[in-house]
Amino acid sequence: MSEVWTFVCTTDELLPGEMKVAFDEVTGTPIAVFNMDGDLYALEDQCSHEDFELSAGHFDPASGQVECVLHGARFDVRDGRALCAPAYEPVAKFPVKVEDGQVLVRDDR
């Protein structure tokens, strides 16, 4: 488990409806951060169905869902749970915080 927080971007660079990707400084895990109406959520940037980046897919801030472009699996960005086939396993959710105008995440597994 990493205790080190990784800088993603400034709050000005992650507007509502947008997502950004960073790599955890300790584990190297790709983490996608989603801005859903001002609330920030962080998930591992990897579909649980097949090894593919969720950030390449479509983020729908109104429903809070991200869709994998490979096979159409959808996940809730708030908790990482799989919402439809072909994904049945959730995606790892990570803590995100804002400090001094900076968005920070970490792999806390």
TrEMBL record:
InterPro entries to which the protein is assigned, alphabetical: Rieske_2Fe-2S, Rieske_2Fe-2S_sf
Rieske domain ranges (all copies): 6-105
UniProt keyword terms in alphabetical order: 2Fe-2S, Iron, Iron-sulfur, Metal-binding
CDD domains assigned to the protein according to its UniProt record, in alphabetical order: Rieske_RO_ferredoxin
Source organism superkingdom: Bacteria
GO MF terms held by the record: 2 iron, 2 sulfur cluster binding; metal ion binding
Protein's recorded name: Non-heme iron oxygenase ferredoxin subunit
Lineage: Bacteria, Pseudomonadati, Pseudomonadota, Gammaproteobacteria, Lysobacterales
